[in-house]
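Figure 6 in text form: structure in, sequence out.
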């Protein structure tokens, strides 16, 4: 909501990323106590969320390229600062678990992407303020979108491999 209210593509991308994280972290917590198949399914859900949000942000970027508008840098800075603080804490808590399994790796990647997005939002807010131009916001949104889509494909690929490895094989007649 803050990204739409501020008219900021970068903040919209960051906000959607955080929404996606909140939705899939619940599923990830459920999957932690389950087997490898559930962990792979949680990673597929995360990949799908990142892909959908990336596509939405890409559409918003195309709209802003056609109809540029100056975003509200104050909102970008305030929300970006709060998000950076929260995501830094989350990343610190996840650091030692980042290589445990596909589920924890995907959660860690999401958190790492959050820090990148938060930092880009803050840099874009500063550049919008200094330059009085919407282009830094659009550029930051494009970078965040690219990270979304790249991570979605990477996590999706790993999750599909895990799903193939953990599928129940049919019994063979004797």
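Output sequence:
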């Amino acid at each position: 909501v803050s990204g739409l209210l501020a008219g900021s593509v970068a903040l919209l991308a960051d906000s959607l990323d955080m929404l996606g994280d909140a939705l899939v972290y619940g599923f990830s917590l459920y999957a932690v106590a389950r087997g490898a198949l559930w962990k792979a399914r949680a990673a597929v859900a995360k990949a799908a969320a990142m892909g959908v949000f990336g596509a939405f942000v890409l559409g918003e970027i195309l709209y802003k390229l056609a109809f540029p508008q100056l975003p509200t840098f104050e909102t970008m800075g305030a929300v970006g600062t709060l998000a950076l603080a929260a995501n830094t804490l989350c990343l610190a808590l996840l650091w030692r678990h980042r290589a445990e399994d596909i589920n924890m790796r995907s959660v860690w990647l999401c958190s790492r992407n959050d820090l990148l997005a938060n930092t880009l939002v803050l840099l874009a807010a500063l550049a919008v303020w200094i330059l009085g131009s919407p282009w830094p916001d659009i550029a930051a949104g494009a970078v965040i979108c690219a990270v979304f889509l790249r991570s979605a494909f990477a996590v999706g690929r790993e999750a599909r491999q895990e799903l193939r490895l953990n599928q129940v094989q049919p019994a063979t007649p004797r």
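Caption detail: The chain is about 85% helix and 0% strand.
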